[in-house]
């Protein structure tokens, strides 16, 4: 019997939209510095798909309840974004849902030290994104980052925001020039400094 873990593990995150007077906003968290993986990083509520989860949506909602106290009754799931394969071996399914503004969010401090919101309008701006090189396994990976106030959003979270942005612009009927699509530029054509 083969008890080895699969090379790619399934995960799901909740891309939660909240309607506010100034426009829609996305819910993000800052992870605890005490966590063994991705400590201190900005991310969507979510995590590994567990055996008891019926599907990726169930995993995203369960994790959102565990991490930020979000009761699934306050979430109307609308769709999923294309899956994202991380460099650390996770295939992440972003589950998009509308969160009732009346929902009370409380961080589980063992995992999350802060819950904050970012305006969708900021996510849609092409100029908000910055490419950078990140050292990984002896090589430099070219990734997107989205600095927002005191937060530096990068990695899988920024990649999911890029996909979210593309879908939002496409659904709105806005035409995107190729340079506005945030397709990852060739590493040889980008003059940027390392993240370190």
Please name the defining characteristics of this protein.
alpha+beta, Nucleoside Triphosphate Pyrophosphohydrolase, three-stranded antiparallel sheet, 3 helices, 11 strands, 18% helix
- Assembly state: single chain
Q: Please report the first level of CATH classification, the CATH class of the domain at 9-125.
A: Alpha Beta
Tell me, rounded to a whole number, the average pLDDT: 84
CATH topology of the domain at 9-125: Nucleoside Triphosphate Pyrophosphohydrolase
How helix-rich are the residues, as a percent range? 10-25%
How big is the Rg?
Answer: 17 Å
Number of helices: 3
What is the annotated CATH architecture of the domain at 9-125?
Answer: Alpha-Beta Complex
Distance between the ends: 43 Å
**Main sheet attributes: strand count, strand direction, barrel closure:** 8 strands, mixed
Instruction: Assign the structural class, choosing from mainly alpha, mainly beta, alpha/beta, alpha+beta, or little secondary structure.
Output: alpha+beta
Rough outline? globular
Count the strands?
11
Name the beta content range: 35-45%
CATH homologous superfamily identity of the domain at 9-125: Nucleoside Triphosphate Pyrophosphohydrolase
């Amino acid at each position: 019997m083969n008890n080895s873990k699969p090379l790619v593990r399934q995960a799901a995150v909740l891309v939660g939209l909240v309607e506010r007077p100034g426009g829609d906003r996305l819910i993000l968290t800052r992870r605890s510095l005490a966590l063994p993986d991705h400590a201190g990083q900005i991310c969507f509520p979510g995590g590994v798909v567990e055996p008891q989860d019926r599907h990726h949506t169930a995993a995203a909602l369960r994790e959102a309840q565990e991490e930020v106290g979000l009761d699934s009754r306050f979430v109307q799931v609308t769709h999923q974004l294309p899956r994202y394969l991380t460099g650390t071996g996770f295939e992440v399914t972003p589950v998009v849902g509308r969160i009732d503004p009346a929902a009370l969010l409380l961080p589980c401090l063992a995992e999350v030290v802060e819950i904050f919101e970012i305006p969708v309008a900021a996510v849609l701006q092409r100029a908000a994104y910055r490419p950078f090189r990140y050292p990984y396994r002896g090589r430099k990976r070219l990734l997107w980052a989205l600095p927002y106030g005191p937060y530096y959003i990068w990695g899988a979270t920024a990649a999911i925001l890029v996909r979210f942005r593309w879908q939002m612009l496409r659904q709105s009927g806005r035409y995107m020039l190729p340079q506005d699509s945030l397709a990852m530029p060739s590493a040889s054509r980008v003059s940027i400094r390392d993240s370190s």
